[in-house]
Request: fold
Amino acid sequence: MSLSQSAFSTQSASEHQTPWAIEFHDVHKIFDNNEHVLKGINLQVPWGETVSLVGNSGTGKSILVKMLIGLLQPSKGTIVVAGQDVKGLSEMEWMPLRKRVSMVFQANALFDSMTVYENIAFPLRQHLQMPEPEIKERVAEVLEWVLLPGIEQQYPQELSGGMRKRVGVARGIVTEPEILLYDEPTAGLDPVSTTVVDEMIRRFQRERGVTSIVITHDLKSAMNVGDRVALLNQGVVWASGTPDELMNEEDTFVRGFFEGYRLAMELLQ
Ligand SMILES: Nc1ncnc2c1ncn2[C@@H]1O[C@H](COP(=O)(O)OP(=O)(O)O)[C@@H](O)[C@H]1O
Ligand SMILES: [Mg+2]
Reply:
């Protein structure tokens, strides 16, 4: 099937009222134990762009995306999603945004007792009133997107880790979100599944105009999928730019962070 002719619509920035899909303005996060993890995050993601978010473990990357979907509240600052300030929104007020923003979680949060079909259909039943034949068509289509056609009747336990992850991604995209947030989508995946997931992220962007933040430890993935890379350090966006810009950055921390990647790339040439 040609994906550009699929049932999914393509978005373009001109249809939106603001130039930014995602905005963080001076966002702080201080936990009850006084741990001040985020100390003034400024990051704006225009519609249609993919930003790779990198940084050492524990720097607050997951916290950032959790705040974007209301799982955590910022201690200070402003977060705007699709033009809407999300601070203090009630669950009811979140509803319209929930369909537009989807998160692909770090862990495979599939329901083991449900088939792949039921797992992927779940958010459609939860958020959209959709007749069963259409649900069937959507599920089949997203399974093709993740290169797992026809596995509807299998159970998660019957699948490899990489396949489960891709089913998780399929569930994340089935509601046709405009904004997709990926937290370590390739963690623990074999190289083939990693390439499939990276390629998929790129296709969502190219063919459907999806805006994404991709948190990853894999610098090769970060460079491949990101139009821009943002590096989190000491509670702030320490550096951001195109992959080329970051590779040529003089700052000591940035150079150190990408040194291993740079060496690996040089060895491959
Ligand atoms: N719910 C929480 N309560 C207290 N501290 C937390 C909570 N969630 C995260 N943290 C702290 O914030 C830090 C950053 O978390 P996280 O965003 O998961 O880092 P990353 O995803 O960059 O590895 C953690 O090291 C932890 O100390
Ligand atoms: Mg994390």
Observations:
- The domain at 3-100+177-268 is CATH 3.40.50.300 (Rossmann fold).
- The radius of gyration is 19 Å.
- The first strand starts at residue 20 and ends at 30.
- Residues 126 and 175 are 10 Å apart (CA to CA).
